[in-house]
Task: structure prediction
Amino acid sequence: MSSGNIQKSQTLIKPAFSEKEAIELVERVFGLKVSAIRSLPSYDDQNFHLHISRSEGIADCADEYVLKITNCEDSQNPELIAVQTQIMMFLNVEGFPSATPHLTKDGNIMSLESLGTGSVTKKYMVRLLTYLPGMTVATISTNPHILYEIGKLAARLDKTLTEKFHHPSIKSLHRGKFIWNLANVPLLEQYIHALGQNSYREVVEQVIQQFKDKIVPKLRNFRACINHGDLNDHNILLDSNTTSPENPQYRVSGILDFSDMSYGYYVFELAITIMYMMIESKDPLSVGGHVLAGFESVVPLSTEERDALFLLVTGRFSQSLVIASYTSLLYPENKEYLMITAKTGWKHLLRMFDVGQEAVEKIWFETAKAYMNNEGNCPCTV
Result:
């Protein structure tokens, strides 16, 4: 999603390659000829969807790719980008629908490239990733089945990585003060001024204080794992395996954007996933129960983890909303994309506070229990 220290964004770290420069880069670095190109929305990296022209001597390539140009700050940590890419390749082998890199002409998974002239030249890490087709969760009306499957996917992904993935650079996923790690909700105090003085700020201040009082002291009791960290409604792709438009049956066909990966806790991934699945839902408070049921079919939560879930979800809402407001001040031209979550996010966060933790948890936990009583099958509808 974004670089770890957003204060450095004031130096304007986002890449600004033109389509012509991107096409030339792909041909020079990867040896492929682009027949069509379009820009894709991005937080502070730059992405292009490419169609490739087949030519003699180039047999081992796909028809479509995403050219991913990492912002110049994150590009200074090639070890982290390399391990994220290795994780994508590992998960693909393990049967998860993740993209894989097309190697450079030199046989590498990425290349450091420059843009600019003279003293303003900046360097960006470039990868060419296989294009994953599908519709984003944000574009559909979710149902209990797909919410359950997404929860299950989140748990399987973290469990598989934590138990099976080994790499010399895995230590780079210990990211300390990385702003998007859910443990770092208290760091929002550095950016909360972007909200101005209003009721939104008051709610976020409450979240931060409760997080300090009730979550931080208990972090050591949560089960640690590797988190994807950004399973949002734009990073999960779906396809429909039914011909009935009235009753579509969706399945996950793609997992995008591994740039927020870090060491965290199983309950962090669950809270992040619940929060993002609430964004476009017509009944957001009911979403958590279905996602929780899917997650717990793979990784059941402890009592302490369950007790923390409500505050963790409000913490992620606060992270997303505060950082978006702050970053949009730096990149006003990208405000529409940056503020996607804010369109409904504030309403959902305020609603959670109005209804209260006890009532929201009752909805979530009773729904999850109903799945257990029904042998993992959906007991109700959203």
